[in-house]
Here is the input.
Amino acid sequence: MQYSSELIQTMRQALETVMASVPAHQSVFGLKAAVAECILNAAAHGQTSYDGLVTSASDQVQAIISMLT
Here is the structure.
C-alpha cells in the first residue's frame, strides 16, 4: 500500500506519542514494532488522523504487552 509522505509523518508522530506514554517498566522487546503494526493497520483501514491513530494504537498497548510477556 502506498502512503503519502504527510501520512507517514503522522504515523511516525503517533508512534512516538504512544511509545512515550508507555511506562519504562512496561516497555518490552518488540513493543514498538507491534505498536507500529497497529498504526499501519489502522491507516490501511482508513484511519488517517493523528488522534485516531494514537487512539487506535493506545487501545492495543496493554494487550500487546500481555502478548509479548
The mean pLDDT is 95.
